[in-house]
UniProtKB/TrEMBL annotation:
Database matches in PANTHER family: LD22376P
Lineage of source species: Bacteria, Pseudomonadati, Bacteroidota, Sphingobacteriia, Sphingobacteriales
Membrane-spanning intervals of the chain: 51-68, 89-106, 118-139, 146-166, 205-225, 237-254, 269-288, 300-321, 355-374
Domain of life where this protein originates: Bacteria
Record's keyword terms, sorted: Membrane, Transmembrane, Transmembrane helix
Name this protein carries in UniProt: DUF5009 domain-containing protein
């Protein structure tokens, strides 16, 4: 009889906390008024917001180890697991593509024109590719080989970005528009299919997906270690804290030569954020799974079990609501969600607090929906 994969409540909690934070920073009431910790670093550096995406990819890696660990020793099952992983990759990529192409104004929608200009990279697209490649590596390599693969990825990416000359520009550099990754994105995707805020580079570009795989594999190794039944829980937590702290320190040291940068997903960024994620998960594991202090976890577990679903829907529904136009006194038209924000938040708060209050209400609104799904055991697996 096949046993169900072991499940960590702390992992669901950590995933839920991460995706709820992701939704919070992605949905302010006013993009012009945001508290500094809820914004990305302008280029080099790392704010709390810059931790969210790597934490999620780290969690994807831990989940791979937990979901597939028991079948890794059976090579006959690898083909079926990779088929499922490939289908999931296609599904996630398609969902990300829908978010990229879905019109803000349905009446102006033209499929052919949209396809000519739609952004191809994106958050869900990166998750999909990283998930499949990491699954393949996990199934085909030993733990030591995975560790060596991470080192190879980080060193190779550092060498590419720091020493390979950029065609049509000159010396290797780490500037926004002239680094090697930006050149590769413009060459393979063209400016029409890149991030609309720049059109010359993309924060989820092709080359920076390579170290993002390193982030996910980091999580894979942590997941494999957490699953070891022969190791006592206290020992696991102690070692994870030590490893996490060492990686944070290594990332900060490497930052002196290869700056921590989310948009470039630098090797120092992988170590720094991977170390913090390891510490965060170890702390959650010790409190929630080992000591059974779990009453506070429910709101985040509710988010965690339907993480991809809520991320997709929170990206789609604002566009749907804003397709409903409301006539304003000056003769202009305002989207329904924008109208809701303008009428119920700025009149009662300062601009920056109104923006934050809206984001919090948005989180609570979706919590109610997710709580009802959780109570009915509705878990949509993407």
């Amino acid at each position: 009889m096949e046993t169900k994969p072991q499940r960590l409540l702390s992992l669901d909690f950590f995933r839920g906390l991460t995706v709820a934070t992701m939704i919070l920073v992605n949905n302010p009431g006013d993009w012009g008024h945001i508290y500094a910790p809820l914004e990305h670093a302008e280029w080099n550096g790392c704010t709390p917001t810059d931790l969210v995406f790597p934490f999620f990819l780290f969690i994807v890696g831990v989940s791979i180890a937990y979901a597939m660990g028991s079948k890794k020793t059976d090579p006959k099952s690898h083909g079926q697991l990779l088929k499922k992983a490939f289908r999931r990759m296609i599904t996630l990529f398609a969902l990300g593509f829908i978010l990229a192409i879905f019109p803000r104004n349905f009446h102006d929608f033209n499929l052919i024109e949209s396809l000519k200009h739609v952004r191809i990279p994106g958050v869900l697209q990166r998750i999909s590719v990283v998930f499949f490649i990491s699954t393949f590596i996990f199934l085909k390599q030993s733990e030591k080989s995975i560790f060596r693969t991470i080192i190879l990825i980080l060193v190779a990416y550092w060498a590419l970005m720091m020493f390979v000359p950029v065609p049509d520009f000159g010396p290797a550099n780490l500037e926004k528009e002239t680094n090697l990754g930006a050149w590769l994105d413009r060459t393979l995707l063209t400016e029409a299919h890149l991030w609309k805020s720049s059109k010359t580079w993309d924060p989820e570009g092709i080359l920076s997906t390579l170290p993002a795989i390193g982030t996910c594999l980091f999580g894979v190794l942590v997941g494999v270690y957490l699953k070891r039944k022969e190791v006592e829980a206290a020992t696991k937590v102690a070692w994870l804290f030590v490893v996490g702290l060492l990686c944070v320190m290594a990332g900060l040291l490497w930052d002196l030569e290869f700056p921590i940068n989310k948009s470039l997903w630098t090797s120092s960024y992988v170590l720094y954020t991977g170390g913090l994620a390891t510490i965060g998960l170890a702390l959650s594991y010790w409190i929630i799974d080992v000591n059974q202090y779990n009453r506070f976890t429910k709101p985040f577990v509710v988010y965690g079990v339907n993480a991809i679903t809520v991320f997709f829907l929170t990206g789609l529904t604002p566009r749907l609501f804003n397709m409903i136009k409301i006539d304003m006194p000056d003769g202009s038209k305002l989207g329904a969600l924008s109208w809701f924000y303008q009428n119920f938040f700025p009149p009662y708060f300062s601009p920056i607090n109104a923006s934050l209050a809206y984001a919090i209400v948005f989180i609570l609104f979706w919590y109610v929906i997710l709580w009802m799904m959780y109570k009915k055991n509705i878990i949509i697996k993407v």
